[in-house]
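Quick check before the chapter quiz. The format below is the same one you will see on the exam, so make sure you can read both the input and the output lines.
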Amino acid sequence: MGAAARIRTFSVALLLAAGSVLASPAERTYSDSGPEPLLAGVFAQIEQNRLDAALGQVESLIKAYPNFRLAHLVKGDLLLARARPLNTLGNAANAPQDRLADLREEAIARLKAYRDKPQADYVPRYLLQMHPEQKYAVVVDTQKSRLYLYQNANGQPRFVADYYISHGKAGTDKVREGDKKTPIGVYHVTASLPRQKLTDFYGSGAFPISYPNEWDKRHGRNSHGIWLHGTSSDTFSRPPKASDGCVVLANQDLDALAKKLQIGTTPVIISNSIEWLSLDDWQAERTSLSASIEAWRSDWESLDTEKYLAHYSKRFQSGKQGVEQWSAQKRQVNAGKQWIKVGAANISMFRNPGREEMVVVTFDQDYRSSNLSNVMKKRQYWVKEDGI
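Here is the expected output.
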């Protein structure tokens, strides 16, 4: 069998694992901002046995992304194909097998993301509502090694860009310090650490996120130091599972993302696998939860304390108070009220992507009553119990 036929065999095997990589221009809504289109074009040429054209395209890919090791590996294979048969991706003699396996995994992750794009009119289930000050939201799909950026378009998420990412070496569902896992949950960006304050390992910068949040702490999850950050100067990208728990992007992707991040405001939702909803289904979920929040607010204003307390779970906790102690306090406080008015503005609602059926609701609360008034930011965790 000739070299061309051999390389065609290895290419088909790889692309069967990754799936078809071609999509019509009209369908290309996601995955067009990085090297994926060029990489997919290279493999498309290989599939057609057009090895010289593939080599020309991979050289263009390397010119655009000089430190992209996967592109260099494919170029090496194409050059070797002129001399001897190839059986798989990565045929250099005595090459470290672990490094080759990492690059194969990266190729599959990138090509799968290019193929399996979400439908243009679908949105992540988690972005139920961003408040007006939240201009963008970040949603990470660890299974696809992909980060999606959405803009707040008058309350509706609108896709902006997506990027390849690496995550924890041991996977996800972080529980403790040193487990090398990436957390799953609803977080936000807490700080910006510039390149000048970091070692080269973190690339062009880092953005810590709010892990562990209140929900994590309640469930015994701890640790710290989970960041969005870049790669060292000699590395374009890492394999899909290559961090100690952080979410790692190519430096140019982090730089592009950094322009959209708002410290203390931008939500970062990390999921094992994103659930996508049509806009109609998304609107239905959003309307249903909004109605529940309005019922809670209205029942508080009604001074019907028992009706108000019916909204709270038996597992409810406020600080160190359990539901019984907290309810007794509410009954005592409301007994001294003649009237109550409660305003809830700038509401955000983000569904938790973990195993718990929960939504994080944050809003500015304006509480006024016959003998007390205050304004505060409130965060609630709405949990579905008994199918309700």
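If your answer matched, good. Confidence is low (pLDDT under 50) at residues 1-29.
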